[in-house]
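Hello again,

I reread your note about wanting to compare the complex against the isolated chains. To keep things tidy I'm splitting this into two emails, and this first one only covers the full assembly. Below are the input lines as submitted, including protein chains and any nucleic acid or small-molecule components. They are followed by the predicted structure of everything together. The single-chain runs will come separately.
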Amino acid sequence: MTPEAHNDLVGVTGPVSPAAAGQWPDRRPGGGLVRGIRAAARAPFTARALRELLFCAIEAPLGLCVLVVPIALLGLPLTATLLVRGAHPAPRHTQPAGIVAFLGPAALFMLLALLVLAPRLARRLGAANRRLAGRLLGEQVAGPAPIPGGRGPVAWVGATLRDGPGWRATGYLLVQLPLAVAGLYAVVICWGAGLVNMTYPLWWAWFRNHPPGVRLSPVPALTPFGVLHVATIAGTFAAFAAGAAMVAAAPWLTRAVVRADLWLMRGLLGPGRLERRVADLERARALAVDDAATMLRRLERDLHDGAQIRLATLAMNLGMAMDRLATEEDQSGLAEVRDLVGAAHQSAKDAMTELRDLARGIHPPALDSGLPDALATLAAASPVPVRLTTSIARRPSQAIETIAYFCAAELLANAVKHSGASTITLTVTGQPELLLLRVADDGHGGADPAGSGLAGLVQRARTVDGRLDVTSPPGGPTQVTVELPLHA
Amino acid sequence: MAATMPGLRVVIAEDAALFREGLARLVESRGHQVACSVADGAALVAAVARHRPDVVVADIRMPPTHTDEGLRAAIELRRAYPRLGVLVLSQYIETRYAARLLEDNAAGIGYLLKDRVADVADFAEALERVAAGGTALDPEVVSQLVRTSQQAAGLAELTPRERDVLALMAEGRSNAGIATALVVSASVVEKHVASIFAKLRLPPSEADNRRVLAVLRYLQP
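Full-complex prediction:
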């Protein structure tokens, strides 16, 4: 290995190549200190620092305004009570009882309202915070799963009270309050007051040029360590120094606040650990299911292009041999050969039939051109007439098509075998998120959903979060509905 | 057993080389000439344009997508050359494919399982029939299509025996062939055929044409 090559190799992972060395900061003693000072001086004016400042400036009031909601909700009945009391002064001896009688239930009601509204309000505010972080800081925090919907006010309240992510968002808002205070401090005191302090020497000369002998009260300058009273020109430089230090420290404070806030957001506003795990598992399962479908498809193709074609060729050759033997004039000793070839011929044909059925059972080839075609072939092969209706706008994933196909095949076979039906209706409807497959027959009913055939289908549908419903009263008719998601 | 129609010019399209060579040997052993053997649908269309064969034998599933290239090529060829016989082979019988193939006209169309090449004489006969403008449908195609078209007008009036006769007609058999298959005399078959034409309200005209029409009526879903 040449030295050049060696350098190139290392250069991929670390900056050691001679060409690049010149561009790297020198390691001389003292250089670090200078760089540190330069970086500190530049820190407040980088784009990142300004974005973080803006984030704090918006985030802090937003966080503090959370306090307004409970205060308003609890303050309202109190105010109302006071107003009522002012308007109708009650007789002295009944007064305390009257207040309690009104204030108690009203406060309780407001408290309950707060409880019911908190998760939903917190979700909104949390979402606003996440958007703000994404927009200003480029930090994308994934949102939680949407709150499960429910019909009617009872379901709505129930869903809200059981909304884990909503309560975590509420927790975030409470924990974030001190951070909001710190952020506000960074913005108002460090940035605001710091910049103001730095201006003291500039305007001092213009506004404090009074004739000697005039005594003016000192001008206060706000610093984190108390108020500085500036009375002389030298004092303005002290204020300037304090301001410069504040402005230099400000970006680090805002950065600390922002970091802590992002950490809280990820922990409390994002999807929970369980939710993330579920999402991971769902993804993994979808992959596994699709993988299995792909594998079966490959297997079918291998059979088709391999064993099947070989056998067909064998049968064809044997057929030709038999043809030749039959036309040969000299028949001596040929009878045995003919029998042998005939047997081989038959076994090749049988094997082809067997293989075809096997391959079709693994993956129906017509599924490649979609469910409607595959189901048409399936329906045509049924000994009981099948009325087939398909309307599928968006093609489901391969795995779903395969499951739907095998459900249909099994249900048709069941209907033919057990129901005594004279017609079967097979309907497949594609909805925005669902594939609905319905098999109905006019037979004598009494199908057992726990029977091995139907139970197997339920299992199969469940692997993709689908479901299967059976209505089959004694005397019929039987209707089986399979609901599958469009994508596994 | 000599070929009944010597000297047919045949183009073969099949992606499996082994099977393709076997087919060519089979066709040549019957006294026909293989003008060209190709391995996909596009090459088939080009070969037909160049060689102008009497009949093509095409696999349905060929590269590049391995779905229905052969079928699409066959339909395209039928549109471009109405007198060309097209015999498609497949490992499977798919009802929709058969319906697409028979959409316009069943004359000169064949759709057989690949298994059928094992019976060399029958296969060669089917090929010659298709080349002559007849039909050769696999019994499995017929049984599938018939199940889907049971409610068709006129068909309900047919007796079970007449249905049997019609099914054999759909496979492409002649009256003599039907008589052999059903173990009856040719005159009985002729009587059944006349009755079928009457029940399906097919006016007397050229006999072959009426047969094709009857079969089409029978098979149309």
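For quick reference: Residues 1-27 of chain A have pLDDT under 50 and may be disordered.

B.
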